[in-house]
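writing this on my phone so excuse typos. first protein, seq and then structure
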Amino acid sequence: MQVQPLDIVVVGGGAFGAASALELAERGHHVTVLDRTASPHPDASSTDISKMIRMDYGADVFYHELAEASLDVWEAWNADWPRALYHPEGFLVLSAREAEPGSFEFESERVLRERGYDPQHFDAEHLRSVWPVWNADRYPEGYVSPRGGWAESGAVVARLLKLGRGAGAGFVAGSFASLLEDGSRVSGVRYVAEDKSVRTLKADRVIVATGAWTPVLLPWLSDVLKPVAQPVVHYGVDDASRWQSPVFPPFAADMAGSGWYGFPALDDGRIKLGHHADGCVVDPEHRGTVSEDHLDLARVFLAESLPELADAPVVGTRVCLYSDSFDGDLWIGEDPERSGLIVAAGGSGHGFKFTPMIGKLVADTIERRENPWLHRFAWRSLAEPRQEAARMQH
């Protein structure tokens, strides 16, 4: 299908925006990225040291398959890029009770096996012998997902932006002010430039990919998208090698119950511990800090599950922002009331792993191409939320 090149403005240079700009520029469109900084903005959720890459989604085969397709590209990127930014170290899934049908752990392992993978199931004795830093008394069973790991998320976004520029995408530094609208059609954006002047960018299509800021910039979406704060803590260890794969792979510890997940140590000794819970709705510009109460809860988790880390010093904290959709699914589609406006948001704490597919999803939306994934992410109104295991790790 031949598509005429379009002038496209991408608002937001995080993972969704960078991937979309690269894909659209490679398809021959004239792309301009608008963001506050030319490099990954420090406040963006994707500007972090690590994000989990996994196929484990309980019984939700749709996300398993989308993650599988994304992994194909992650592996291709590793082969093509100067340095591998995806680390395929597996994914350790720990269950705090005997895994039963319907549980995240049981269903994830079942789907993996049904789709041809061979996750390594283990009991407490095996956990104690192979991964001795874990308190096996708390985790009677679990499995190792064979295909997954973690990615250097901030570095990935920087790489995508660089590739986008190489493919012809332009970049404008400034803050989004408003859409340019001609009746029911969006024809560009107004933005505040670095010199504080208000300027315009005309476009055939505008993509808003601003993560947690999306319902603030587009307030008519505030009933279906929420900016939600989630805490992250970094601990320091003296001997990083003792806390790296394969001895200490990326993990989820009773994820659906307690919400704890984490990553192996970086070479500088930093271990990242995250917590997936309901979070709290915040103003993205005033997200707050990680509370002392949460730090206390994290200490309890470490003391009970990873006792050697019980007294590890906190070397950093971060409040990560989710762009939560009401049903946990991504939000990628054209606004039915504003022709020419495409929104790519709703990562809901689990969107980064799909970065290799996001550009294709957005570009196919713009070019009105058939795409087997888009139906799940299409524009939709509030309804009874689907039961899903989507938002497990960011």
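second protein below, same order as before
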Amino acid sequence: MSSETESFQPDTALRVVVRGGGDLGTGVAWRLHRCGFRVLVTEVAEPRVIRRAVAFASAIYGFPEKARHGAITVDGVTARLVPNDDEVLTAWERDEVPVVVDAEAAVVRRLQPEAVVDAIMAKRNLGTSITDAPIVVVLGPGFTAGIDCHAVVETHRGHNLGSVIEQGSAEPDTGVPGRVGGEGARRVLRATRAGAFRARRAIGDRVEEGTPIATVEGEPIRSLIDGVVRGLLQDGLVVDANDKVGDVDPRGVVEHCFTISDKALAVGGAVVEAVLHLRRDRANMGGRIRR
């Protein structure tokens, strides 16, 4: 009995690279880390993350309310910005998730992980290949399982959220924000013009309809609803007109701003399922994954 139980436990040396440390990528990395995988997150030099309080990408900036510069702790797991491969190993020894600035994910070639997860959420393939690792899992639309990757995880809210797709694609992007607390597009804050973004409120602040949340080149961006500020772009980033720069949660629960969302947890759990299932499938096929 014990040997059967042990066979379902993940190898603590199993390495997974997660491309993208936004809120969904963080849910993925957090779940994998909690299950004993050695996880590394790659990001661009200036990640355009909205839910910064719960995003490992924020280690690049440092999130003031949660950690010193170069690190962030989300739901008990610390992610730390590291400069080189040696520091990746050191972070793993500290039971942390290393974050590297590596837009092209060149670290994949050096690290040779067993799994790569594309959590960039670009709604299109920016270079991920099914040959990047023995197991390649992607989030959301823009990919086809069996061609670009071994599995796609559905990210669209609804009945199929968190489904693992091994043939075909996720639901297409509608361009319409998912509804939270009864609000869809109105909960999203968008730049009214191009220029440098400056926050006037902080994540977790309670606001009312009409409250100025931020400015772009001095022009205010006002909340369209009552609620709490759940996410804001990093101060000082340059945006284009109509870019998403923030998110107001109409449910009004401040704690939700600082914990991983239900959606991110569902998607993260689906990735763990996909990796373990594909790993078992690969073992049964003598090291190959059935396509």
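The chain has five helices and 17 strands. thats all i got for now
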